[in-house]
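Q: I'm writing a short methods note and want an example of a predicted protein-small molecule complex. Could you take the sequence and the SMILES for S-adenosylmethionine and return the bound structure as tokens? Please keep the output block clean; save any remarks for afterwards.
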Amino acid sequence: MTKKKEQIWDGNVRDAALTILLAVDKHQAYSNLLLNQTINKYKIEAKDRALLTELTYGTLQHKYTLDYYLEPFIKGKMDLWVKWLLRLSLYQIEYLDRVPDHAAVNEAVEIAKRRGHKGIASVVNGVLRSILRQGVRSTEEIKDPTKRLAIETSHPEWLVERFVEAYGISKTTEMLHENNVPPLLSVRVNTTKATVEEVLALLAEEGVEAEQSKVMPECLHLKSGQASRTKAFKDGYITIQDESSMMPANALNPQPGWRVLDMCAAPGGKTTHMAEKMNNEGSILATDIHPHKLDLIDETSTRLGLGIIQTAPVDGRKAAQFLEAESFDAVLVDAPCSGLGVMRRKPDIKYTKREEDLSRLHDIQLELLDNAVKVLKKGGRLVYSTCTVNKEENEETVQAFLAAHPEMEPTQLENLPKELLEKSQGGMLQVFPQDIGSDGFFVAAFQKSEQD
Ligand SMILES: C[S@@+](CC[C@H](N)C(=O)[O-])C[C@H]1O[C@@H](n2cnc3c(N)ncnc32)[C@H](O)[C@@H]1O
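A: Understood, no commentary inside the block.
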């Protein structure tokens, strides 16, 4: 092992978590990608993997709350790595019952000695032991309710204000708390290969405990095991996908034999879902602006044994220049978005997103939809979806789109469970993370007029 590798993984889970947290902060690296890379590269085993995941996500998820607790105990300037070490250690003390406080402190002191020197170790020891003696301050001290909610749930204040204005205090409070709960692990059954019961049996044979979701019939929730390491995954029986992400293909409801365009397709979760729904009959053109991401779609469709998907690098904002007019029976625009519905899966989004990013996305989404209409057949079906909870990118994008396109009508969302359809309005559905314990997601369906 080289010196560099030893730095990230020498069997010390807390040290590895600290390295990931620092990289996320310093280089705006994505926590989920870095965590997966670390786990796969060093073949970290199940017990350590679970703790590493919990420490990394937990510390990131609660960053503002931890800083609020730490602030009275920190005097003067401090290196970034020491600050993250304190956050990481305080996270264990405050949120993890199964880690004894003294173990969290001792580990922190050892890391501080190794990465720094005795002086830093003594500061770390002093801060953590003072907190253990005195306890942390209550958030009740924060008088402004929005600010208090922002600190308690560790979200930026501007975002909390926006959410409260759009959805009200009660829904926002539920959502922000839910964003700090680890996501359920869900997979989609490849229904062209096996039934749900058969896949449950295959997983059980491998010692993986799973159960069918009560919402989406093709969705299984895994209670143990790592899905991507199972034989069922390698043999193409399952795809890892959040339950909300299974809505767009269902809402579009593509039929066997249709010609379908998936305009923003990579890495192909919804393309392959649509191919499964079409029973692998017909054709799907899967396009994305980033050519290098198209390989991921090809890999997944090969793994799943789906032969109807073709990929092409296309900027959806210019799709009508490259694709035949009115040639697709159905189009899915699973648009680039702010991702505010997936903050518990990617907690770094909370701290990196800027308010000005949101309006820019609204404009891009409209350009994509404009092009989608041009290549959609008369009478064809269009679904627009995002993994965000933001009216500007969801309901307001739809309103602006409909205002510019009298030939498009909102239409009934199809093929979704009753409990979700009950929440839909005018062919639009906003799912919040707290609704079915899945990602925040938006989906809207439209039909193109048969007339000119
Ligand atoms: C939400 S992700 C799509 C996820 C995908 N549908 C799935 O289920 O796996 C949005 C995708 O849009 C792509 N994208 C961004 N701008 C685009 C554009 N102008 N034209 C086409 N694709 C674009 C991104 O590269 C990204 O892969």
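A: Remarks, as requested: Residues 1-6 have pLDDT under 50 and may be disordered. The two ends are 67 Å apart (CA to CA).
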